[in-house]
Design a protein that fits this description.
single chain; 231 residues; alpha/beta; Rossmann fold; Arc Repressor Mutant, subunit A; 2 domains; five-stranded parallel sheet; four-stranded antiparallel sheet; 12 strands; elongated
């Protein structure tokens, strides 16, 4: 496995490199101190996971993420000193898998890295409900293929797991907490902001009109419900 750390603070890079070497001794750690170099190294080294700072000289973390996402779905965890909700939302909407705000503990960051790596793995095929057709949406759980209005839909691991959990519980209201626990796991690295962003991303991919969804419905103050529609 190979991790790429992109951050302009040498002490952060040194601390993260040490943490990765202690946690996973067989991993290769590569680093860059600005976004432009980071993207170049990403293209050359093809890392398995990226830790990416937002505030950097030259191109910032958002632009670096945009360039990475244009060619790869590799797991990306964003680092930021900002705690404003909109900064977190922007990172997630641009395709980040998770984020953590500086200052942070290395144990927490390692836990988040383990979590996003697990979510990026393809799980074994379920033993029940091999496929589901609901209106103009269909899911094949064995192949992880999703079709919406006759067209294939490309989903990230988190998007797929969220949709699959909603679909398997069609007609039931799923609370925010239950969805966060199911999709983000026992580490609970997800939060309500992340959940809302991913629901919005899902609607943009599977709904004909995301502003008036017919599949993924909001139950205000409670959670979400996947509507039962005739096939």
């Amino acid at each position: 496995m190979k991790v790429l750390i992109i951050d302009d603070e040498p002490e952060i890079v040194e601390a993260l490199s040490l943490a990765f070497n202690l946690q996973w001794q067989n991993w290769e750690v590569i680093t860059a101190q600005d976004g432009e170099t980071g993207v170049t190294m990403f293209n050359r080294e093809s890392p398995d996971v990226v830790v990416l700072d937002i505030a950097m000289p030259g191109i910032d973390g958002y632009e670096a993420l945009r360039r990475i996402r244009s060619i790869s779905d590799v797991p990306v965890l964003m680092l930021t000193v900002r705690s404003e909700e909109m900064d977190k939302v922007k990172a997630l909407e641009m395709g980040a898998d998770d984020y953590i705000t500086k200052p942070f503990g290395t144990l927490e960051l390692m836990a988040r890295i383990r979590a996003i790596l697990r979510r990026s793995e393809v799980p074994s095929a379920p033993t029940v409900h091999a496929s589901i057709v609901c209106g103009d949406l269909s899911m094949d759980f064995a192949s992880r293929e999703v079709l919406a209005y006759g067209k294939p839909v490309k989903l990230t691991p988190i998007e797929y797991n969220l949709l699959a959990h909603l679909v398997r519980n069609a007609g039931r209201v799923m609370s925010h907490g239950a969805l966060i626990s199911k999709v983000w796991g026992s580490e609970n690295s997800g939060d309500l902001i992340s959940l809302k962003v991913y629901v919005r991303r899902l609607r943009q991919k599977v709904e004909k009109d995301p502003s008036s969804p017919v599949y993924i419905l909001t139950e205000r103050g409670i959670g979400y419900r996947f509507a039962r529609l005739p096939a």
